[in-house]
Design a protein that fits this description.
- This protein is of the alpha/beta class.
- The chain has a domain at 3-68 and 379-455.
- The protein is 37% helix and 15% strand.
- It has helices at 31-43, 53-62, 109-125, 144-161, 177-186, 198-204, 214-225, 245-256, 270-274, 282-298, 340-344, 365-374, 409-425, 429-437, 439-446, and strands at residues 8-12, 15-20, 25-29, 80-82, 130-135, 164-171, 189-193, 230-237, 260-265, 303-304, 325-327, 332-334, 351-355, 361-363.
- Strands 10-9-8-7-6-5-4-11-12-13-14 form an eleven-stranded mixed beta sheet. It has a three-stranded antiparallel beta sheet with strand order 1-2-3, with helices on both faces.
- Helix 5 links the parallel strand 6 and strand 7.
- It is globular, with a radius of gyration of 23 Å.
- Bound molecules: iron/sulfur cluster (2 copies).
- One iron/sulfur cluster is lined by residues 378, 380-381, 384, 386-387, 390-393, 398-399, 407, 411, 414-415.
């Protein structure tokens, strides 16, 4: 690989942060050192007039690196996803999962068992040690019998093959305490949607029966918090709660002691505008998230941003492109949990198999290959330092084919958050404080069209 095309230079308050995701390098330098590094990398040599830090950096940067391996051959899923039903008892004002239009369809139990058996066979064949199953919806707990069947079948298969099980569920927590206790006993991780304090939660996430969702979500959070399962709290942030992010983070940490907290910015759709709900200003969101992250860190709890800087370079920051097999109630096997209409309307096809009526699993290898390849083509990301961590973000909502090469608000907020992550990793808290104070500079950085060292003059 050409390391120069994957090394970045980020201006921060008069200095420059050299960042190479492949060499795991992060270093703060001045302008003349940055130019020397560029010269030394172009020459592919570790020469420098400046003995010491620059020369060491060059030696490190010029070492041979390889791109992450692209998936090929037989399917090898990151995990098995099960959508027990698309139905939901919620009526969230920003729902992107089609719960309001979804047919009242529940996965037949035999189909659920076939999915688990097929996946268990692959895990055994590949000599992996884990059966990892994630549940999505709708609200998965609306089809409790499917969830129970999958859990018990997977445990049975795991016992027979000496494997471990990992169960994760994304849920709204709107059910009787018995169901929450079941999750607390059998699940590894419960990701609960809770958007903050009562007025915002009820405004964002009303129930179909007209009631607010706050009380039950809170009770489920308390039950999971006191159980052996890990509680993850996910909050959607709109213009209504962006100013409360710090307080929400503090409250989550204090009251529920979660395993992790995740803030996601609301994505605007025609439906959200009708409901008078708008995405947060990207600068406000990024600054509030960085501050909230510090509050969480003081409790020893990670605040996760899904497309933040990752330890290892990736082609995709979500399940898509990782062979993830997500089975819908109708038997389709897809790489993404959205309704197919969502990706079809932008010319994508993320289905790559199905479970036949006789419960035989069919994998369409051509489709799988196309998905694996397509996620690596992201023209917008080619000069962005988040290329190997965000990697395009949501392939359906953000960098779909024809989405354009200009940064959008999602890109800008991701770039600001990722910069602060890099500074934090260097222990540059003071510098992060400065950029949080000077948001105009932060915004100008977010709009920088190329971060590549080779474009630096
Ligand atoms: S350009 Fe946008 S989508 Fe692409 S990597 Fe950068 S932040 Fe992510
Ligand atoms: S493409 Fe978007 S909606 Fe689908 S799994 Fe990835 S991030 Fe989620």
């Amino acid at each position: 690989m050409n390391i120069l095309q994957n090394t970045y230079l980020l201006p921060v308050n008069g200095k420059y942060l050299v960042y190479s995701p492949f060499a795991s390098t992060r270093a703060l330098v001045n302008k003349s050192a940055a130019l020397e590094i560029k010269k030394g990398m172009k020459a592919g040599a570790a020469f420098s007039d400046n003995q010491g830090q620059v020369e060491n950096l060059l030696i490190h940067l010029n070492e041979k690196k390889v791109l992450p391996e692209k998936r090929k051959g037989e399917i090898n899923p990151l995990f098995l996803g099960i959508i027990p039903t698309r139905s939901c008892n919620g009526a969230c004002n920003y729902c992107d999962f089609g719960a309001d239009k979804a047919p009242d369809l529940y996965m037949p139990l035999k189909r659920a068992v076939s999915a688990v058996d097929w996946y268990s066979g692959i895990v055994r064949k590949n000599k992996h040690k884990l059966l990892e199953i994630h549940f999505f919806g709708g609200e998965p707990m609306m089809a409790m019998d499917v969830v129970e069947t999958v859990v018990h079948r997977a445990r049975f298969n795991a016992q027979n093959a000496n494997l471990k099980t990992v169960f994760e569920i994304s849920t709204n927590g709107q059910y009787h305490r018995d169901k929450a206790e079941f999750l607390g006993s059998y699940f590894t991780t419960v990701i609960l949607s809770l958007d903050g304090f009562e007025p915002v939660q009820n405004a964002h996430r009303p129930l179909k029966n007209g009631r607010g969702s706050f009380q039950d979500a809170r009770r489920t959070a308390e039950i999971i918090s006191g159980s052996s399962a890990r509680l993850g709290l996910r909050a959607c942030v709109s213009d209504k709660n962006v100013d409360q992010m710090g307080k929400i983070a503090e409250w989550f940490c204090r009251e529920f002691k979660p395993f992790s907290i995740n803030f996601e910015a609301l994505r605007e759709t025609s439906e959200t505008s009708i409901k008078n709900l708008y995405p947060p200003d990207p600068v406000k969101f990024a600054v509030s998230l960085i501050k909230a992250r510090r509050i969480c860190a003081s409790y020893g709890i990670p605040l996760v941003y899904a497309t933040d800087i990752s330890m290892n370079p990736v082609y995709s920051s979500c399940p898509v492109g990782k062979d993830t097999a997500i089975v819908s109630p109708d038997g389709r096997i897809s790489n993404c949990y959205l309704m197919p209409e969502k990706w079809k309307e932008i010319g994508m096809d993320l289905d790559f198999g199905f479970i036949r009526d006789d419960n035989v699993v069919v994998i369409e290898k051509g489709n799988l290959k196309t998905i694996r390849n397509d996620i690596t083509k992201k023209p917008r990301c080619s000069r962005c330092f988040c290329r190997w961590s965000c990697a395009g973000g949501c392939h359906v909502g953000n960098t779909f084919p024809g989405a354009g090469n200009d940064y959008n608000d999602y890109c800008r907020q991701t770039r600001m958050i990722s910069l602060s992550t890099l500074l934090d990793s260097l222990g540059m808290d003071e510098m992060t404080n400065e950029i949080l104070e000077e948001t105009a500079r932060l915004e100008s950085f977010a709009n920088q069209s190329s971060d590549l060292l080779m474009d630096f003059m």
